[in-house]
Design a protein that fits this description.
This protein has a domain at about 55-160. The chain is an all-alpha fold. The chain is about 70% helix and about 0% strand.
Length: about 160
């Protein structure tokens, strides 16, 4: 006798439909993503709707495996760092060097999600423009922190990867 069937993993197509409300590549997909992410009630909600293709891949191949042996908060933060590092790898491939700006930026974005969760952030009672403004400010503040860290560490130490 076998146990209960393993839970079915959500396919990418169904994940995108759930997050965007329209199928992959459908008209209105980008608009739905922007409206839903910027109108989310928390920073965690923002990321649930932002770039569902990347979100699916990060959830399935980074976050889920990490949370098997790390506390959920550490797995979440590590997933943000991996995402930033991936963006920096693209920068390295395109420019031949990177300053790890995305890695720092995504670290702070992850910290923002954790702080929002700890504070039980709930913007659902606010209007959409207020929620959107809060999310834009969050992203910009995290970028500012990343730039400050990058500058604080010194550009020569960070530009050591790749040709000068």
């Amino acid at each position: 006798m076998s146990g209960p069937p393993a839970p079915r993993r959500l396919t990418l197509s169904r994940y995108i439909l759930r997050r965007n409300g329209v199928p992959v590549g459908a008209p209105g997909s980008l608009g739905n993503m922007l409206r839903r992410s910027l109108g989310a009630s928390s920073f965690a909600g923002f990321w649930r709707y932002w770039n569902p293709v990347f979100g699916y891949l990060l959830g399935a191949y980074v976050f889920s495996p990490l949370k098997r042996f790390l506390p959920r908060a550490a797995a979440l933060l590590a997933t943000f760092v991996v995402c930033g590092a991936f963006h920096d790898l693209v920068t390295l491939g395109v420019r031949g060097r990177t300053a790890f700006l995305f890695t720092f930026w995504f670290f702070f974005l992850g910290v923002g999600v954790l702080l929002g969760n700890a504070a039980r952030m709930d913007l659902s009672g606010r209007t959409w423009p207020v929620r959107a403004a809060v999310h834009v400010i969050y992203v910009v503040v995290c970028l500012g922190l990343a730039i400050a860290v990058q500058r604080g560490l010194g550009s020569t130490a960070l530009h050591g990867l790749g040709p000068a």
